[in-house]
Write a structure and sequence with these properties.
5 strands, 4 helices, 21% strand, 5-stranded antiparallel β-sheet, alpha+beta, Aspartate Aminotransferase, domain 1
Length: 120
């Protein structure tokens, strides 16, 4: 798992009310594929694989909001991604139980991103 110490420090400093949930989503994404990396970009934690995959929207305080930058281009058959923007789609989670219940959907979306990037 490619945990970036910069992201660790960011999350400690941010003192977000949903840090536990943010960390769980982070662990699921990073454990899905060892090639996924994370960084701080646009002043927020961002997951990368052959480009910018997804970034947290850290202003949300009552749920974890994860924006998949090119989510509209993905074939999300899980229903996890929401929105109708030109490119972006959002995955939202409100509790640890919801995160666990949607873990396989989140992993499927991440794998779809990897497949899409590998085929590009």
């Amino acid at each position: 798992m490619n945990k970036n110490p910069e992201v660790d420090q960011y999350l400690v400093k941010k003192e977000h009310p949903m840090t536990t949930e943010i960390e769980r989503v982070r662990d699921i994404i990073l454990a899905t594929d060892d090639r996924i990396e994370e960084t701080i970009k646009w002043a927020v934690p961002t997951f990368m694989y052959k480009g910018n995959m997804a970034s947290y929207f850290m202003n949300a305080k009552k749920h974890v909001s994860l924006m998949f930058h090119k989510g509209a281009l993905m074939n999300d058959t899980t229903g996890l991604l929401e929105g109708d923007g030109k490119e972006g789609r959002v995955a939202k989670f409100t509790t640890l139980q919801e995160i666990e219940s949607k873990k396989e959907d989140l992993q499927a979306v991440v794998k779809q991103w990897i497949k899409m990037q590998d085929e590009a």
